[in-house]
Structure formats: structure tokens, C-alpha cells
Amino acid sequence: MVRPHGGALMVQIFCEPSERADDNTLTLTGENFHHIVQVLRMRVGEELSVCFTGETAEYRYGIERIESDAAFCRLYFVKEADVELPCPVTVLQGLPKADKMETVIQKTIELGASRIVPVACERSVVRLDEKRGEGKRARWQKIAESAAKQSHRALIPEVTAPVSFAEALSMCADADVRLIPWELAGEQGASMEETRSIIKDVRPGQRVTVFIGPEGGFSEDEVRRAREAGFLPITLGRRILRTETAAMTVLSWLVFTLDR
Fold it and tell me: Are 76 and 62 spatial neighbours (Cβ–Cβ below 8 Å)?
């Protein structure tokens, strides 16, 4: 039996379908070649898991030959991946300071988020112009890919360029469940029991959107606009959570409720 690299967890990579030489062989070059051969020091006879863009199945390959700029792999078997949440979850994240956005992306993708949308809110300290926003997006997408590999996701979730508050609301007009954790929700009558009930009522196949505020939270006007767009205010408990903790909390609840 071929062992996983180093006896540790199976190495996973993402590939384009065009990298398949035929139905049974795969040729790795470029970044994937560099990663498995020069970084991980994988050898002939070792095994890796491959997910192809646009597919959800897991392909298991063994390395048959390594040359100076390419690794040649043979298919062992294919199995349907069962690692994604039964509901696609979009996280609208109010732009936070420093590198907190990177933490949000990494951890929510590990927990199953399918799309991350950075949002410029009233209380967002960070302001990104179009050029800087695209530069950040490229880095954020790399973090998303790394998190997807680490957690053995079947797909790489999308991280969009930063959008305005109004654009964020319109992007999720087709969501079946829209949640907005708000620190004042409890004072407005949203109890923890009601929040539990809302989470428990989420059903497989529904599209879920979670809107998280930046440091300082949402303004009352933003909450009003979100409610008019169909978002339900929920409470995360008696304590005030950091912005990078809030999304992880809601995703954890959804994982607990939906994962089977």
C-alpha cells in the first residue's frame, strides 16, 4: 500500500482539468510541481489527493516519475467528496484593521464558508481604492487556497474584491437565510433561544449569508437597511466578540447543526 507523504495527513492540491494528460495520468508542473517536489520533498511511490476546478470528486494519484520540471502521476481511484457543508455560506465581512481579514478568511474557509465578501462599512477604518483592493484580493485568494488545502476542501472558495454596503446587500438578494449578528440585538428583543431556533431551521440546500460588522460594529442605519433587505438580527450571547471571532462563531453553529 502506498503511504501518504511522511506518514502524515494526505497531501492535497488543486489542479485545472487541462493538467490531466488522459483519464489515468496527471502531469504536474509550475507551482504544484514546486510545492510537492521542492517544498514537501515528495518522492516516487507517494500518494496525493487532487481536486479539479469545477468538480467535487477527490482523485487519488501516485507519483510514478519525477523529472527536473515535472512530476508524472497515475490515477489510483476516484471517490465523491463529502466534505462541503450542505448549504453554501457567504460571509459578508466588514473590513477590519491590520491582518484580521486574513484570519477571517482562513478560519471561515476551514469551517466551510463558500464565499467571502469584504465590505466597506461606515465604521470600517480601512479604506481600499480599486488598485489596492485588487492587490489585497490576490493575496486573500492565496490564503483561501491554502486554507482549502489544509482543511481538504473539495473547492477553493472565492474571495471577492471589496464592495460597498449597498453592493453587499444586492449581492445576496437570492439568499434563503440572511443573518446579521448585532451586539444590540438582545436589547431589541432577539433572545439566544430565538437565535438557536433560527440556526436550527436552516435546511440543506438553502443559501445562507452571514453579515459581520467591523470593529465598532454596525451603525443603526446599516442595521435598518440590512433588515429591510431581509437580514435577521441575531445575538451571539452576552459577551461582545471581536469581529474576527463573530464569523467563526456563526459558522461553527452551522457546522454543528448541518454537518452529518
Answer: yes
The DSSP letter of residue 97 is S
* Whether residue 183 is found in the same domain as residue 247: yes
The rounded distance, in Å, linking the Cα atoms of 237 and 101 is 23
Which residue type is seen at 209?
T
Residue 185 has pLDDT above 80, yes or no: no
Query: Model confidence over 145-175: pLDDT tens digits?
Result: 999 988 889 889 999 999 999 999 999 999 9
Q: What is the CATH number of the domain that holds 70?
A: 2.40.240.20
Query: Are 133 and 156 found together in one domain?
Result: yes
Q: Which domain holds residue 249?
A: 89-258
Tell me the backbone φ, ψ of residue 38, rounded to 5 degrees. -90, -30
Measured CA to CA, the distance from residue 202 to residue 166 in angstroms comes to 25
pTM over 0.90: no
- Asked if 23 and 93 sit in the same domain, the reply is no
Distance CA 185, CA 31 (A): 47
Angle between helices 100-110 and 130-150 (to 10 degrees): 40
The answer to whether residues 111 and 176 belong to one domain is: yes
Q: What is the DSSP string of 188-240?
A: TT--HHHHHHHHHT--TT--EEEEE--TT---HHHHHHHHHTTPEEE---SSP
